[in-house]
Amino acid sequence: MNKNIAHLYSIAQKEERVIIGLMSGTSLDGLDVVLCGISGAGTSSTVKVHHFETVQYSTDFKEDVLSVFSKEQVRLERLCLLNGWIGEQHGLMINQCLQKWGVDGSEVDLIASHGQTIYHSPKRLHQLDKFGNATLQIGDGDRIAVTTGIITLSDFRQKHIAFGGEGAPLAVYGDFLLFAHPTENRVLLNIGGIANFTYLPAGCHSDTFICTDIGPGNTIMDAYVRTYFPNQFYDEDGLIARTGNIQLDLLVALKEHDFFKQSFPKTTGPELFNLSYLENSIEMAGVKTINHADILATLNKFTADMIVDAFLKTMTTMEDLVVYASGGGIHNALLMEHLKSSLPKVQFRDFNTLNINPDAKEAVLFAVLANEAIAGNIIKEQCIQGVPQVSMGKISFPY
Known about the structure:
2 domains; alpha/beta; Nucleotidyltransferase, domain 5
C-alpha cells in the first residue's frame, strides 16, 4: 500500500484528529489559521480550538490577489502564477504559526484549505444555457502539502457543484454538526464579504431549516474604501459611515435588483455586488452629488436591511430566535447597531458562548469538512435534505 494512503488510513482510525483549518475571505484581511482537535465524526463530532491566529496579508499580497479577483478579464499568466504562489505562501504562514505556537508539524494530522476565491459564477448569475454553476478558488493544495509536510484537503466547493449545488454556502454542514440544539432556535449569521446564514430550528426537525447567501456583507463597502481612501481596506468599526447620512433614494435603488426577489436558498458574490452595482444604483436613484460618508452610511444600512429582510422572509417568528454572528462584519459597530435596532425581539449572543472564536468559525468549519471526508460519513440527516449529501475535499500528499 502507498505509505501516504496507509498514513491517511491510520489518521481515519484515530479517536481524535489534529486538524488545521484555513480561511481566506473576499475581504482579504489575512489568512485565518486555526488548530483544532476534532473527536468523532458526524453528529457526534466535538471540536476544541487549541490555537487561532489571523496572519495579516501585506499590501503587495492584497494587490496581487485584487489583480485577478472578481474580474471577467484577467492576465492568465498572473492567475496561473498566483495559484501556486498563494499555496506556497499559505504553507509558509502555517509553518510560522506552528513555530509560534510551539507545535511540531508531525503532530498535525491534516490541513483543510478553503483557498482564495477568485470568481463565483452560479448559473443564476451567468445565465448561459451551455454551462452550469461554477466557482474558482486558488492556492494549490499540493504546494501547501509539500511546504508543510502535512496531508492537505482543498478545493471543497467543486464536489458540492458536481452534485447539483452552487458551491456555497458550505457552512450548512459544519453548522448542523456542531451547533444544532434540541431546544434553542438558532441562526448562525456570517457577515463576510457576502452575508449568509444557517437557520437551525430547535431539534433540527423542520422543513424550515435553511442555509443561504443573503447578499452583500462587507464587499461593496470594502471596495469603496479601497478606492477612495488610500491605504485603507475597510471602514474600521463603521467610523466613516457613522459621520454620514443615509440617502433614502439611493437605499431604495440598491434594493431593486432581481436577486433579492429570488427564492432561498441562493448564492452570490462580488461579481454582482460591486462598485458597478453601486454606480448603477446611484444613476437609478438620480443622485447628482453625494459625499463618501453618505455613501458608506447608505451601504451600511443596505447590508443590514437585506439581512433583516431575509430573516423576515424565512423565519416564522422572531420571538424565540437566538442569533450567533461571526465574520468581519461583527466588528462594524454601526452595522450591528442597525441589525439589533431592526430586530428588537431577536436575542444576539456572543459566539464565544459556543466555545468558538467568531473570527475562527469559518476556518473551524473547513476543518470539520476535512474530518468528515477522512473519518465521517455522508450526512443524510432528514433536516438537511435539499443540500448535496457528499464528502468534499481533494487530497494532496506531501511527497
